[in-house]
Write a structure and sequence with these properties.
The protein is mostly helical. It contains four helices and no strands. Helix 2 packs across helix 3.
Length: 89
């Protein structure tokens, strides 16, 4: 391999590196931005849920029942267990 081929290879490698990372927004910047968008979307979902929890009685009741196992007066709470966990030898 002579010097001219080495120089062409180096230029091509440089162009490829610039295509991936060059310019105002490179590949790593794009990945960071996508990650930030996912975090922000998760934050929006969490904030909407928190707002619904404070303003929507149905959401409040759902959380009280599912998370804390609360029931209304007069209701009976049934707990279903797997058949193999009921009897242990």
């Amino acid at each position: 391999m002579n010097k001219k081929q080495a120089l062409v290879g180096l230029v091509v490698a440089g162009m490829a590196a610039f295509a991936v990372e060059g310019g105002e927004y490179g590949t790593l910047d794009l990945l960071r931005l996508k990650s930030q968008v996912r975090r922000e979307q998760a934050s929006i979902v969490r904030l909407r849920f928190e707002k619904a929890l404070t303003t929507d009685p149905a959401t409040e009741e759902k959380v009280a029942r599912e998370v804390y196992g609360m029931i209304r007066p007069g209701e009976i709470l049934y707990q279903v267990v797997a058949p193999d966990s009921a009897r242990r030898p």
